[in-house]
Design a protein that fits this description.
Helices cover 47% and strands 12% of the residues. Strands 1, 2, 3, 6, 7 and 8 form a six-stranded parallel sheet that branches. It has a two-stranded parallel ribbon with strand order 4-5. α8 packs parallel to α9. The longest helix has 20 residues. The chain is of the alpha/beta class and 254 residues long. The chain folds into two domains: 45 residues, no CATH class; 182 residues, Alpha-Beta Barrel (TIM Barrel), CATH 3.20.20. The chain is globular. The structure holds zinc ion (ZN). The site of zinc ion (ZN) has 5 residues, from loops. Pfam families: Polysacc_deac_1. It comes from Owenweeksia hongkongensis (strain DSM 17368 / CIP 108786 / JCM 12287 / NRRL B-23963 / UST20020801). InterPro entries: Glyco_hydro/deAcase_b/a-brl, NODB_dom, Polysacc_deacetylase_ArnD. One of its GO terms (molecular function) is hydrolase activity, acting on carbon-nitrogen (but not peptide) bonds. This is Putative xylanase/chitin deacetylase.
């Protein structure tokens, strides 16, 4: 279901319940039920990027035995250790970078690019207020990051990942006007929450055979060790690490 089809369904259900309530056929408590249903669907759509509720999102792979590596929230001094592991295994990755971080670490941003990886937009400030921002602020966060990432790296930016994977009608509306592909994930490592590398590895390992887009954070020190294990596992189990650029057509860069 998308936001537009939900709106139509919600209006029809509300009118039907209002009519039946007016006729005395059902209790007015149904109105509370339909409101709770609406809130639940909107909350799910906001928090679940792969539901494609507010904006079409690339979050799944079709072919078996493949893995796309994505890293959020850098560039960060720890990104260098991540890059070293990727280089050792000749594995391509996409880094969703924060504009502000890129301004602080332009050399690391350029190393990501020169080692053949993709840089995507993860907003200028990664604000905790992302889900509550007005359209103008949402647009600024995205456009400012694109401007800074492009001028620092000299490469066009084609991909975007919203902070926390959160979208809503305002964010969806702004994204529809921008030449960016929205990239989600279907395997969340939870590396910002699970700090024990062994526990983290045990969480990820059983899910690696499902052909996933995995979400890591290059800001996390213990992610380096788990990445190493992930790449060794993929190598020994015939899982190919593929690049986002091989799977998705890049939009024309206006
Ligand atoms: Zn993030």
């Amino acid at each position: 279901m998308t936001y537009n089809s939900f709106k139509i369904l919600f209006v029809i259900l509300t009118l039907a319940i209002a009519f039946l309530g007016w006729q005395g056929a059902i209790s007015w408590l149904w109105i509370i039920g339909i409101i709770l249903f609406g809130v639940a669907i909107l909350s799910y759509g906001s928090a679940t990027l792969q539901s494609n509720f507010f904006t079409p999102t690339f979050s799944k792979l079709k072919e078996p035995n493949e893995l796309i590596l994505t890293f959020d929230d850098g560039p960060h001094p720890n990104t260098l250790a991540i890059l070293e592991v990727l280089k050792k295994h000749q594995a391509p990755a996409t880094f969703f970078c924060i504009g502000k971080q890129a301004q602080q670490h332009p050399d690391i941003l350029n190393q990501i690019i020169s080692e053949g990886h993709i840089v995507g937009n993860h907003t200028q400030n990664h604000s905790n207020k992302w889900g509550w921002m007005r359209s103008k602020a949402v647009r600024y966060e995205i456009e400012e990051a694109t401007k800074n990432l492009e001028s620092l790296s000299g490469k066009p930016i084609h991909f975007f990942r919203p902070p926390f994977g959160v979208t809503n009608p305002r964010i969806g509306k702004v994204l529809r006007t921008l030449p960016l592909k929205i990239i989600g994930w279907d395997l969340r490592s939870l590396d910002t929450t699970i700090k024990n590398p062994e526990k983290l590895w045990q969480r990820i390992k059983p899910k690696l055979n499902n052909s996933s887009i995995i979400l890591f954070h290059d800001t996390q020190e213990h992610t380096v060790e788990v990445l190493e294990k992930t790449l060794e596992y993929c190598q020994s189990h015939g899982i190919k690490i593929v690049s986002l650029a091989d799977k998705i057509e890049t939009p024309s860069h206006a």
